[in-house]
Every structure is written in C-alpha cells, then in structure tokens.
Design a protein that fits this description.
It is a single chain. 40% of the residues lie in helices and 15% in strands. The two termini are 26 Å apart. It has a 3-stranded antiparallel β-sheet, covered by helices on one side. The longest helix has 21 residues. A hairpin with a 5-residue loop joins strand 1 and strand 2. It is built from 2 helices and 3 strands. With 80 residues, the chain is an alpha+beta fold.
Length: 80
C-alpha cells in the first residue's frame, strides 16, 4: 500500500526548470513537499526520498495524509 501511495504521488508531481538551470518538483496535493536538484532524475529521486520522510513524519505527528487514487494512509490507533 505504501509503495502504491508513493507511486501515485510521483505520478502527480509537477516539474519545473528554474532560471538557475536546476529542477524543482512538487506534488500539489501534498502541502510542504518539494524537491530541487541539478537534473530531473536527481529531482525525482530527491522528491521520492522527501515523500517517504514526509509520510513518516506526518503519521508520527497524527496529520491527515491526503487520499491519492483511493489510497489512504493512517496509523491504527490502539484500542483501550
């Protein structure tokens, strides 16, 4: 499920060539997630790594992770 979510996010990524010759990428639905690198390949890899960290941190902090392509990510809360 996590792999599918990451792939769905990467499929939604928007890339832009900046004036300084580097590439910028973001996934519009995932607030605060972006990457910047000298090549588009490096930018995609950096975006993927940032996405993995973004998901883990978001889950640890109890944030709602947006649904992508019908995939929901959430930590199961302990039942008392």
């Amino acid at each position: 499920m996590l792999t599918n979510y990451i792939q769905a996010a990467l499929n939604r990524a928007k890339y832009e060539l900046l004036d300084d010759g580097t590439f910028y990428a973001e996934v519009p639905e995932l607030q605060g997630l972006y990457a910047n690198a000298p090549t588009i390949e490096n930018c995609r890899e950096e975006l993927k790594q940032s996405l993995e960290e973004w998901i883990v941190l978001g889950l640890q902090l109890g944030h709602n992770i947006p649904e992508l392509d019908g995939i929901y990510l959430a930590l199961k809360k302990d039942v008392a």
